[in-house]
Structures are given as C-alpha cells and as structure tokens.
Design a protein that fits this description.
The complex is a heterodimer. Chain A is mainly beta. Chain A has 4 helices and 15 strands. Chain B has an 18-stranded antiparallel barrel. A 3-stranded mixed sheet of chain B has the order 8-12-11, with no helix packed on it. Classes of the chains: A mainly beta, B mainly beta.
C-alpha cells in the first residue's frame, strides 16, 4: 500500500497573516509586507501546545459520486522547529490502523514515517511527491503539510472585502521548497484574526488548478481559530474534496514521547 | 495434523499469558472495544502440473478470516488486542490452519513501554528480503514471500529516548515454521514431517530466547542494531531415511546467536537501504555465516495525474554460497513500484530476482485496488524461469502461479 499522508492542521496556520501596520506601510515593499503579515499570522497561532481533532474527508467526482476517509489527528507544537503530527486512519476500512508520523521543518524536507498495520512495519518515506494527491483526494501532501513561514516567498497584493462583513488581505505566495506542484498561490486572509478564507492554487504552467474555501471558524482557548469546513474544488477536473473538522481538543497533555517512531506501532 | 490450530496456539502461548492479561481486563474501564477485520477469498492457478507426486494439479480456492478486537484506553496509552486467524484451503490440509496472531496487552508511560502476550514485531528496511526480522516465525504456508508471520509469545520492555528506543525481548516459547503438505505447492520433493521436529536445546520449544534492539534516528538516517540468542527461526531440513530410501524431511532447530544491523538513509529522491546479519551456531558442525542485502529505491517525478513511479534495486549476498538454506547467495532484485494515487489506491509492484551465479530468474508481480466500500482486490503472481538444477528455487520451477484475492473488510 503506497498510502502517504501528511496531515497537520497547517493550512490553517499557514494562511494566517495580515494586519496592516500603517507605521511601516510606506517604507515596506509588497514583498516585505507579505512576509510580515505571514510572520504575524504565525505568531498569533503560537503557544497552542498540542491539539487533537477528527477529520472526515469526502471525495466527490464530477458525476457526484462520493467516497469517504476518516482520520484522527494529533499535533504537537514545535519549539524552534516545525510541528510534529500523527495521523490515524479509521476509514476506508482496508487502511484502518495505518498511521503517519510527520516532523515538519522549514525549507528542509519533512521527516515522515508510515506504519503499516498488516505487517506491523514502520517505514520511513521520502517527500519527493509532495505534489501528489493525498489518498486520492484533491488535497495534495503539500496542502496538508505544516505551513512554516519559510516555505514561501510572499507578496502583498491588495486589501478587499471577503464576505461575512470581513476584510481580507490578498497575498501571493510562491513555494520556496523543492518539488512543489504550484507556481503560486493567492490567499485571502482576514485582517482581524488572520483566518484564511480562500486560496487559489496555480499549477506549474500558471493556470488556475484548485480553489480552497474555508469556513465555520471557532475560537479555542480564547485565542486559536480553527475551521470546521475546508472545501477544495479542482477547476480543471471538476472533482472536489471536503474536509469536515470536529472534536478539537487543545492542551491534551501530549508529549514528544507520543510522537516517537515507536509510538506508531502502538 | 500438527499445525497451528487455535487450540494448539492457545495451549502454547495463550495460557502462559492469561493470568497476566486477566488483571488488565478487570481494571480497564469498561469493554468499549472495537471489532474489525477481514474475510478473504483466494483463488490460485498454476499453469503447470506439479513437479512431484500428489501435488494439487492446477490450484484451487482458499478462504481466510482475520478478525481483530481492540480496546484502547487511558489516552491510547493502554491497549488490549486479540487477533485470531484461520485459513481453509481446498487442497492442502497443512495450509488449512489457524493461529493467534495477537493476544496482548501494551502499556506506555513516559519513557517506558511494555508489552506482554502473543504478538508480532517487524524489524528491517529492505523490500525483497527480510534478513534482520528475527522475532516472529514465518507462516510458510501463507505465501512464498515470507511476509506472513506466526504470533510469538513475548514480554517486551522498551525505553524510549528522544530520537529512538531500546527494546528488550524475552521470548518464552518457540513456534515451528509451517510447511506445505502432500498436496501443497511450493515445497521440496519430500514433505516436512511435523511430528519429527527436533531441537538442539533440551528444553525444545520451551527454551527461552532473548533479544535486544536499539534504534535511533539521526537526521535523514534511521539505524537499528540487534542481538539475538536462542533457537533459530530457520530450521535445518534433514532427510528422513527409511530402509535407505528418503521418505520425508525433518526440521531441526539449532541454537544461535546473531548480531545484525539495518540502516536507511532517506534522501529526497532516493532512499538507500541495508540489512546485514552475522549468525553463529552453538553446534560447531554448522557453519557460521553472514548475509547482507543492500540497495535503493528511487522516486521519479510524479505524473500530472498524480501517479508516481519508483525504481528499486537490491543486491543479496550470503557467505554460505549456493546451499539449500541460502536462496540469495549472490542475487540481484530489480523492480518498479507504480502507485496511481487514485481514489481506489491502485498500486502495482513488479520485480525480478536474478541469481548472478547461475542465472536463475524469477519474476514477481503484486497489485491491489479498492473496490467500492470495504472491498479490496489483490493480484499476485510469480514465474520461475531458467532455474538451475542446483538452485534452491529448483523445487518451485513448476509452481508458476497467479493468485486473485478478494478481501471484504468489516
């Protein structure tokens, strides 16, 4: 089974950005401003410690036929490095018990181990195909990987209303890591709480590939925003994948021992 | 039949551990466990008649059941698992067998983890041979790739460190390998007589084996080293002579000590792998030996559809040379893995083993995809070509086969 995963809440964190500081406005280039917004968004999400959540992934093809994946996620916030995350697969039934451990880094490729329950085998895998689909869905591994600030080069484009009465900063992000499937991404991030609202993904030929819309935000611990729905639509194939998040729990007491290679085989 | 019916497995391993497991049952908060597993129907087709008298002609059907009961609590730090296994085979009554794959309790707390009961562990990194994977006995009647294992009674204590772990194993009961019966394929001209098994240890299957394994991740490298002392999982097969005519085979299990290493370096495109062992026999009449398998898996750029292709090559060496126990004395495995990454998780692995001494070749194919909800289709086949008379694979030369398996998960 060549299942590969990379699941961290990432997308959420990643997009966090913005807040217009007028003091620097005039002195900043659009690139500097984009980076500053990304850093501020990242800073706003630090300190969560750890969290667990459940995810239901619904894949729909153009004919409307759907299939489902169920995954539980455990994430430990990294100190000085990227986050560690463990994904546990409950569905489809033939991959039940499969687990994926990811240590994310900045520009350095993530470390990733897969646990195959039938063989009880822990297998370290490479990240060459981060642009490939995650479990046949419209999300690729790079979409779901932890989004460290260093992974992109940013450029602030404009500010505009983005629904719900929210105002958003529109930022262009170009992947700075190797083997991305994208030439660029355009992200809408709300100026108040740094919540990603929408991302448009452009393929290597610079044609619009996918659009992600994120909604149903709730705040946890009075600080950390997490979405309940993420809908990715492939504009080239008409297929779509919806992620529904539930049962978020923060500061559950997870430690690095729960993210040891050994913990995969538990 | 002296196979591994659940009754026997229970007698061998289960009873040992029941007193230890009982308090677990009682103390665990409720019995909110979950049941899952699969039932599989397998059809095999052999396009040649068997090489030996009595062998099944063109294959047949087989049905297997692998349920798993699992109960986890205390934030997943405690776990009870029960996984019995049973297979029925149309022709080979030795392949009709049962086993307790797992019946154990696992607990982890901080830097420590322990496991007690019948269980399975996997060591190693390479794909075409599993040299260092010594804890569990091979369930030989399941398949010729050696990847199916019998449940092993064990007590494991592990110390978890920042980037690795140290495992100590006490293995109080030995499991005999399973071999094909009279009507089975993938066997020698003579049948292994399960009632004739001998051991070097006077305690026979009750000899207590010990193993230690240390593993560590250092950046892009994963390193494992192990030490094992006890009864070898690999038997020496000796002919049983009656009136100076060979009538069968007797499995003899010698005492060994073994050290081994497994190494993987995970580059962005290419993964490098190595497994090596050095085995010493207590019995000086048996030759000590070392063996190694090393190679790489290289990922090619993904296709636009999301599909990916990787190429594999692994070289095998065994210091014993061309002897019946060493099929991979100077062999090369080359293969390709193709994953569609589609909704049905379709993937395919094709490869060939080439004996660099006598040019014996064997080609193998494995493919699988999900069908709808809860069903999986597996395809497997192997052909043996140009088999040298002296090669250990010689006995299999009429056993080219194709196997289709439909699995229903629940």
């Amino acid at each position: 089974m060549l299942l590969k995963t990379k699941l961290t809440l990432s997308l959420v964190v990643l997009l966090a950005a913005s807040s217009f500081s007028s003091a620097y406005a005039r002195a900043e280039t659009p690139e500097q401003k984009g980076l500053r917004i990304a850093k501020e968004g990242d800073a706003k999400d630090t300190g969560f410690g750890d969290f667990t959540a459940n995810m239901v992934m619904t894949l729909k093809n153009r004919a409307g036929k759907s299939s489902r994946r169920i995954i539980r996620i455990k994430t430990l916030e990294g100190k000085g490095d990227g986050d560690k995350s463990l994904s546990l697969f409950d569905e489809p039934q033939d991959v039940k018990g499969t687990k994926m451990l990811t240590f994310s880094h900045g520009l350095k490729p993530d470390d990733q181990w897969l646990y195959l329950p039938a063989l009880k085998r822990v297998k370290r895998i490479n990240s060459r195909n981060k642009s490939g689909p995650f479990m046949g869905s419209e999300f690729s591994f790079e979409d779901l990987g932890s989004q460290e600030v260093e992974k992109y080069k940013y450029k602030f484009l404009r500010e505009e209303p983005c629904g719900n009465g929210w105002k958003c900063y529109v930022i262009e992000r170009k992947p700075a890591y190797k083997y991305s499937g994208y030439s660029k991404q355009i992200a809408w991030i709300d100026t108040k709480e740094y919540r990603p609202v929408k991302i448009m993904f452009y393929d290597r030929k610079n044609a619009l590939l996918k659009t992600l819309q994120t909604s149903g935000y709730k705040q946890y611990l009075g600080k950390y925003w997490r979405p309940s729905v993420m809908n990715m639509v492939n504009k080239q194939t008409g297929k779509s994948t919806m992620l529904q998040w539930s049962n978020y729990k923060f500061r559950t007491g997870l430690t690095s021992r729960d993210f040891n290679k050994k913990a995969l085989a538990r | 039949m002296k196979g591994y019916l659940p009754r026997k497995a229970l007698k061998s391993g289960g009873v040992y551990f029941l007193p230890l497991l009982l308090p677990v049952f009682l103390s665990s908060s409720g019995f909110a466990g979950e049941l899952s597993g699969n039932i599989s129907l397998e059809g095999r087709y052999f396009n040649h008649q068997g090489a030996f008298a009595d062998q099944q002609k063109n294959g047949g059907l087989s049905l297997s059941l692998l349920p798993e009961y699992k109960h986890q609590w205390d934030n997943d730090h405690k776990k009870f698992t029960f996984t019995p296994f049973f297979r029925w085979d149309q022709h080979d009554k030795e392949r009709t067998h049962g086993d307790i794959r797992q019946l154990d309790y696992l607990a982890s707390k901080g830097d420590w983890e322990y496991q007690v009961g019948i269980s399975k562990v996997y060591w190693g990194v390479t794909e075409s041979q599993h040299l260092v994977d010594i804890i569990n006995q091979t369930d030989g009647v399941e398949g010729i790739d050696g990847e199916d294992k019998l449940g092993q009674p064990m007590v494991r204590l592990s110390r978890i460190t920042d980037n690795g772990s140290l495992d100590l194993f006490v293995l109080p009961y030995f499991r005999e390998r399973t071999f094909a019966g009279k009507k089975g394929r993938f066997r020698a001209p003579f049948i292994v007589d399960n009632n004739a098994t001998t051991y070097e240890s006077s305690r026979k299957e009750k000899h207590v084996d010990y193993a230690v394994r240390f593993q560590e991740t250092v950046g892009d490298a994963d390193i494992g080293v192990h030490y094992f002392t006890g009864t070898s999982r690999d038997p020496v097969l000796n002919p049983i002579i009656n009136n100076s005519i060979p009538v069968g085979l007797q499995a003899h299990y010698p005492l060994i000590t073994q050290v081994g290493i497994d190494l993987q370096y995970t580059g962005e495109d290419t993964i490098w792998k190595l497994e090596a062992i050095s085995r010493n026999f207590e019995d000086k009449k048996l030759d000590d030996y070392s063996a190694v398998v090393a190679g790489f898996e290289h990922s090619l750029p993904g296709f636009e559809s999301g599909a990916e292709l990787s190429l594999l090559a692994e070289y095998h060496h065994d210091s014993r040379g061309e002897v019946p126990q060493a099929a991979f004395q100077n062999d090369l495995f080359v293969g390709a893995r193709f994953a569609l990454n589609d909704e049905a998780s379709t993937d395919l692995l094709a490869g060939a083993f080439i004996d660099l001494d006598n040019n014996t070749q064997s080609m193998r194919l494995e493919a699988s995809r999900r069908i709808g909800k809860g069903l999986k289709l597996n395809l497997e086949g192997q052909v043996f070509t140009n088999v040298d008379d002296k090669d250990p694979l010689n006995a299999f030369q009429k056993d080219d086969y194709i196997q289709v398996e439909l699995q229903k998960y629940f």
